[in-house]
Amino acid sequence: MAGKAIHGRLTGTSAGTRVYPLVLPQNPVLPAVTYRVLSTTATHLFGTDADVEAVRVQVDCWATSYSAVRALAAEVSAALNRYSGTVNGIVVRDVLLQTELDLHEEDTGLRRVLQDFIIYLEA
């Protein structure tokens, strides 16, 4: 469910439809975004199951230059951080940006920004 919500929010960025689960396709058109669910945790409240689950999601922004990847990362952060609403039929209670890291991929020469989000979804 988190993947559908992420995909729906990120198609409005300059990556457009170039939002992919897990890995970039071969010979990708850039800029692009990949995402992966790292973990899902059910929440508990006073000994009962709450109606919210916390999903940790990694989002990677990809581009050929540092300025382009930073611009895309800013768009992704604006689209996701503190978002609440319904996306693709999934109720998102809140999204929090936890970590952001600038990276350079030596083998491809691509620039990457890794962003780690916690997404609170209605269970």
How would you describe this protein?
This protein has 123 residues and is α+β, with helices and mostly antiparallel strands. The chain has helices at 2-10, 66-80; strands at residues 19-21, 32-45, 48-63, 85-87, 90-104, 111-122. The chain has one domain: Phage tail protein-like (STM4215-like, 2-Layer Sandwich), CATH 3.30.2000.10. It is built from 2 helices and 6 strands. A 6-stranded mixed sheet has the order 1-2-3-6-5-4. A hairpin with a 6-residue loop joins strand 5 and strand 6 (111-122). The radius of gyration is 15 Å and the shape is elongated. The termini are close together.
CATH fold category name:
STM4215-like
**Shape-level CATH architecture:** 2-Layer Sandwich
| Overall 3D shape | elongated
Unreliable parts: none
Distance between the termini: 10 Å
Alpha carbon gyration radius: 15 Å
Largest sheet features? 6 strands, mixed
Treating each run of at least 4 consecutive H or I residues as one helix, how many helices? 2
Structural class: alpha+beta
CATH top level is Alpha Beta
Order of helices and strands: HEEEHEEE
Number of domains: 1
Residues in helices, as a percent range? 10-25%
